Input
Amino acid sequence: TGPFNNAGAVRIDGGSSLTVPFNYSQTNGSTTMNGGSLSTNDTVDLLRGTFHGSSSASLDVSNAAEVSPGDPIGTLDVARDYVETSTAALRIDIGGRAVGTQYDQLRVTGSASLAGVLSIHLANGFVPTNGDLFTVLTCGMRSGTFARIESPDFPAELWEIEYGTSYVRLRAANDTDNDGIKN
Output
């Protein structure tokens, strides 16, 4: 009947739903969306920990922690707005070229305001080739940009980011001599 505070582990499986009438605050731990649904009349405040999975969340998200679509790879739908602070990270796993089954995507129905880190991780031994394109975020309207890219598995300078009014795309840059430097 009041605000919900998570400092542990919340898992919402398929066929399940969690409705919080007021603010959902995560001060540590994790929230895993495993096919179920989460809704609130207020905001999900992610202060620490991770919010991940493949499912639908009917809420506004204020991210100062880490949002990671999929578990490990999939799509996460935010039915309202997504606001990212400078301390936040959006983690995207890329294990192939098919959205939702081989690479992650965050889909925001409302607006997406970006300010944090885009953290890119390769999966399943996948190595992108020149020109590979990944739409990692779709939204009703985008504002802001990521402060930086972190990419422990692939040189960050080989990722080119394209910001559109309703999307963010990653393109693998040209490295014809495989030296980790864009040609």
Notes: The first strand starts at residue 4 and ends at 6.
